[in-house]
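Now read the record:
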Amino acid sequence: MPIGLQGYTTRYRVYTAAHVEETYKKLSAMGYDGAESGLGGRIMSPEEDIALLKKYGLKVADIYGDLSKPDEVMRRAELYGVKIVGAPSVPNEMLHSVEGFKTYAERLNELAKPFKGTGIRLQYHNHSQEFRNFPQLGGKAGMAILIEETDPDMIVFELDTFWMSAAGCDPAQWIEKVSGRIPIVHFKDLAIDWKAEDGGMGQVYKRFAEIGQGNINWPPIVAACVKAGVEWYCVEQDRTVLDEYECLKISIDFMRSIGVK
């Protein structure tokens, strides 16, 4: 079960080619298997980035690109040796209605059409807003609409454990809903901010935490991931209190201890 880094975690540490190499070296030493998108994608050419990845024995889980230029995206995917390409999130104006979610599902299907027959699939990554519920559909969540109304052969989902938990959902249950359609999962823990001044009822201030340092129940999530066919477990911590690399070490050590091997 490869473990990768989502580069947003180290965004304040990676500005140059030397920083990219330093991060790859640290990841390799910690036991990470790769990263999403290639950390050097905005700093150097794909060829230079790939050379550094190979130097440290790392791979890339997925890429992002301009889906209005599918030929360019396909070339980039081929260079990095990946078959998963990130898709954009639902625009805010579409989040407020059933029709908005249905329309966006249609848009995802259209974006995927140029990639049919290539082996490439588009990947949707959630936050919390996709889990808003619609009473006219018996409480169905917007995410369920996206899952049900997108082409299962072309659209996959990169579910995020923090954002599902923040939305009040059971991550394991939702991972099961997309079994066979979740090649990559975001592992991210949710904790309560111990520095929050207001600790009264209802005033629960959430924070991002290292894996195993928060309140998420990980064993059933890991079991659900294995059953659903997850191929990459990518660590992301949007904000850190400790040094980012120290956080990444804590996370991977915990993940290996609970069976992500």
Q: What stands out?
A: The first helix runs from residue 17 to 30. The CA atoms of residues 16 and 149 lie 41 Å apart.
